[in-house]
Fold these 3 entries.
Entry 1:
Amino acid sequence: MTESEKSLAVNAECMRRFWILISCGLLASVLVGDLGYAQERLKISYSSIDAPNANWYIAEDKRIYQKYGLDTDLIFISSSTTNVAAVVAGYVKVGNISGGALANAAVGGADLVCVGSFINTLPYDLIVNESIKSPQSLKGKSIGISRVGSSSDVAARVLLKALGLEPDRDVAILQVGGSPERAASFRTGRIAGFTSPPGTVELTKGMPHRILVSMGDLPNRYPFPYVCVTTTKSFLASNRSTVKRIMMALIDGTHFFKTQKEESKKIFAKYSRQNNEGYLEAGYQANAKLFERVPFVTKEGMEIQIKEALVRKPGATLKVNEIVDDSIVMELEKEGFIDRIYK
């Protein structure tokens, strides 16, 4: 047999195995298994211990990143605004950054792009002391957020305005920290209320409280790209395959969350370091409904955040397509990857 004939025979055998694997629904395994990608080491980050970020740490806990050829170092960096600095500096290559923080950073010149969003609204409640019976009772008091420009900050401003209150003027907004820190500050009386994802109210440990308003109470769900997979434009351009595999792992992790309730709650408890059943159940129930099967970014929501950011930066310009690149999600949907995961 000539070298040419040998080459043709090898190619034919490879193609035969390729189509067998497709017919068995194992294409993903080919792409990332022994015949495909070598394990690639990189740092990625998530910005909250709450359930909306669960797909990031489920993918770590269940070794889903490794399934797609990624040897990840998953790092918790509290708040989207801090994650912006980490991604821009190259400390992490891909991070979870909210649409508000992304828009503010991009307007300021940061080289960032969002390649997908797993939750496209703000699943937040405004929790206040039980003595506060009406929005007017909140005037002159303060509520806690994680950091200025974070999702909790955006949620606070949206909810206060929905109640007819002017943020900063009628109600002070204080940087306190993550959900557990906000609950602790609430218990000690430092703040009169705080914004937080559903279920966090269970962490107030008996402190008299009420939910003054929830995002779900509003007539229309507020469009907001909340759990955005974000990297630098330069990293995406030179490492597109890596970013695509991260998206594959996160889609797989999202499917796990949606379909494996009890184990997902156990992982949620592990990473949040909370064993309060009310907190875990509420977090699961609220977010299982909100996680996107196909994680496209809400363009409407990003447009709102860009407009807000431009108000704070007179003379600057920015368009949605400059910071959103949905092409990887489009590819995965077209290739049938998402349908295979959810079959």
Entry 2:
Amino acid sequence: MARSTSVQLSGNRRTALSLCTRASRRVEAREFYRNSLATLNEASMPYLVGGAYALARYLGVARHTKDLDIFVRESDLQPVLSVLAKAGYRTDITFPHWLGKAFCGKELVDVIHSSGNGVVVVDDEWFEQSVPDEVLGVPVRLCPAEEMIWSKAFIMERERFDGGDVLHLILARANVLDWNRLLRRFGPHYRVLLAHLVLFGFTYPSDRDLIPSWVMNRLLGALGQEQSDDVPRVRVCQGTLLSRAQFLVDIEQWGYEDARLAPSVRMTPQHIAQWTDAISEDIRIYDDVYPRDGAARRDR
């Protein structure tokens, strides 16, 4: 019995130490985030807060986050990182086409000026439509809900799918969303928005009337028109705008052109190569799933 009690106490001690360590890290992270925001304010740097903190404001539901997401214009990326570096934090431009970072030990702040697929660019309108608020006691401006929907709608990775955030934002904000701006933001990628709105009706059948009927009619009308148009002769895979890993086989083995190389997308072959090289091995589509001598089946 004594041995059993001793082991149990040791286990409790380890648990307590683990909890204290995690709590300490959360405190350190909050101080890092708070100091970063205050430092940027003192330097009059233009930025917006997004991610979990903005979601908490729009949804009224807080969730733990491993980092702080701030959004800037591309022209402000280096100045913002320089201010944070002068404050004593390590910084780098992790992916030039969309992301920089500031580090304090294991904690980090993401400094975002576009999206991983090169489609969702932070521009002046983000700031014009931003919402004043307070994060960790610091006055800030939040990313508009419309632009959050726009950016999150394209994240459909094997390891991360932001569709839940999109649907929750629509549920919470449908009555005040600028639907015209949202439609304009998606533009030629309107099918992505339509897909999420169809899923919204599936997820919340009793709330599907939150989506204005004219929005659905416009999107379905565009879909109907496109269905009657001639099929494009060039074989392009737009799946790479949704996932950097899951559609590599289409580009590398099946002869499709990469939609990320279109003039409207702000990615170069070098950007794509760097973004692809960063995919961890455990989320790649392996050759034993799609053999390199295999071809995509196209039954007609």
Entry 3:
Amino acid sequence: MVCFSSRYAVVCGVSCLCMDTTIKNQSPLLSVAVTGTIVLLWATISALKIFPASTFPSPLEVAQTFIAEVRSGTLFNDIVASLFRVSVGFVLSAAVGIPVGLFMGLYPPIRAALLPIMNYLRALSPLAWIPFAILWFGVGDTSTIFLIFMSAVFPLALATLAATANIPGIYFRAARDFGLNQRELLTEVTFPAILPQVITALRVSAGLCWLVVVAAEMIAGRDGLGYLIWDARNGLRMDRLVVGMVVIGLFGVVIDRILLQLTKLPSVRWGYER
């Protein structure tokens, strides 16, 4: 078993090393420069009064509002509420979608039975479920979590299905030659082979969850970052609205970076080149 896993690691080691080298050679100064340029352009447009001040707040106004929101504790409460909903919905969608996609990929009859309805449900906008979510679960956490779950579970299932169905058959033949049983085939071959695609799907789905939580909290929420944006819009507080947008973007990037760290696991690295 060890020999079998090691051979796969050797096969893909060169590709992973090249990928790591490319990432390490990218200077963070470039990102800082681009971000600074965008903020400078934003400040310039605000100073030139191209748009009315009430509809285009300056970076300084947004920063002052951010500090005020932090001091009042409102922003912290909204962040906690949104993070809770996104985390629960995302974990539930992964706990359901990945196993379902795995079984669909491994067993063609299950795939034939479930794939049409999975594709149909994936094509539906998660926001179309908002009326049902409110009727079934009321206004609050449960309805928002349901919408987040519906946005992520089907993309995750189909991505896992595609990754599993496309594993080269020679992997399994080689594994059987090494005497691996069914459980070992799953843990030593299938999981490492599909993890790169599954991690990518998780990163994409996490972004979808943040998109949906904002829309859901605008309609079916009483707090959260989406509600903050909606309340700021109703009050014509564009500075608060921009604060909500900035915080959502920052948390989206942080979560994506956290999921990206999964690609550095030894059992995942060899699967990037097959």
